[in-house]
Amino acid sequence: MKPKTIIPLIIGLAVGFFAIKMGVDMVQKARGAQGGEALVCVTAKQIEVATRLTEGMIATTRIPSALVPSNAFTDPKALIGRVTTMTMAPGVPITNGMLAPPGAEPGLRAIIPSGHRAVSVSVTEESAVAGFITPGSRVDVSTVSEREGTSKLILTDVEVGAVGQSLSEVSSDGKTTRVTKSVTLFLEQHEVQILNAHTAGRSNKVRLALRGNATDPGESFWSRMFKNAGTAPEKESDPQEKAPAPQYVVEVLHGTELERLVFDDSGLVERSSAQGTRSARGRVAAGAAATEQPTAAPSEDVE
To answer: Which residues have CB under 8 Å from 144's CB, separation 6+?
Structure first.
């Protein structure tokens, strides 16, 4: 064999052995550098949200200490009777963040976030995005007035707690949608009042808009705007939209000259004659005040 072919072969074998040595060293370091393996509790099968844990749902296994999550459980007895707050796949280490506080009962109450309330709204297939809304989704809430033909966005980025009476995030086959008559939302206390104020009328119906995983630009600003919004400012503006106060007109004939006096509840508003028109609010003529009526027939001025 020629030297020109032997030298590249030797160099290639040396590089290969060096790579193997480095890989073996890294594996051994990952196994033993952090104290070996630790025993942790994992799920023995898929566990749905708001489910009370039993002995058959829990298993133990050994994993490298470096991979053990914080607040992971090592004693299966400490998990018996606890309630889950999320759906867990098989073989997942169980941590305290996945569970409701000790003593919590299974059901919807176990997954309501602190400071929130569960509120159900009536929906249809159209207003609930054809059934694609599932527990855990984030939605925007709008009200639609059929009588006035208007729509208003009242709440944004709201978490869905339940669809109908189901708390599961997916259906049994993992892809089928569910069309129900109600959707339960997790709202803060002031958001509950906003929702009630905008859905009090029978003509106002709720429409939900499903949000994606990406965050919209300027989301935090608009969220604060809608969360601080209330119904009181709208009620204060209603009197301005009402019809003006009624006015009363008195016509006085002075010979051949007709004088027109306009009054409202505060007094004389306007005086007009053949010589022109002038405003007289706040100054009521002594003779005209006695003749203040909604309408009055012209009268002659007898000298």
So the answer is: 150, 151, 204, 205, 206, 207
Listed range (140-149, 169-178, 194-203) with the worst mean pLDDT:
169-178
pLDDT digits (tens, 9 = 90+) for 44-102: 999 988 899 999 999 999 888 878 888 899 899 999 999 998 889 899 999 998 998 88
Same domain membership, residue 155 and residue 199: yes
Cα–Cα distance list, 127 to 124, 140, 181, 195 (Å) = 5, 11, 10, 16
Q: What is the rounded CA–CA span in Å between residue 261 and residue 284? A: 10
CATH number, domain at 51? 3.90.1210.10
The parent domain of residue 218 ranges over: 112-239
* Cα distance between residue 106 and residue 169, in whole Å: 16
pLDDT score at 226 = 52
The answer to whether residue 272 scores a pLDDT higher than 60 is yes
User: Residue 32 to residues 38, 63, 66, 95, 286: CA-CA distances in angstroms?
Assistant: 12, 12, 10, 24, 107
**What's the domain count of the chain?**
4
Asked if residue 162 and residue 62 are part of one domain, the reply reads: no
